[in-house]
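User: Second chain of the day. Same drill as before.
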Amino acid sequence: MRTKPNQKKTIHRQTQQTTRKSKIKTQKRVLYIGNLENNSRKDILRSFRFYGPIKRLWVSKCGTYAFIEYRDPADAHFARCRLNGGTIGEGSDKKIIVDWADIQ
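Assistant: Same format as last time:
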């Protein structure tokens, strides 16, 4: 049985897209963001939206910590790896903490 050339390309594209997600073993999607300096929601979203679609963002009243939920666990994993120890906002030199939220 012979396959059509177009069919092979479709299968190859599908495997490329799922490769990144198949390497992630966790299903966690919610991140804790700590050590914030009263950053606005816009600053937080601007930094975290780069890694994927965000489902929900909650910022504390005092503005020193927040929780963010991604639609895809792989996006949350990469945001956690890349943004932990970084800074948010212009002129800020305070390093943020990004880790998995302990939700029960």
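The CA atoms of residues 15 and 103 lie 32 Å apart.

User: Great, on to the next one.
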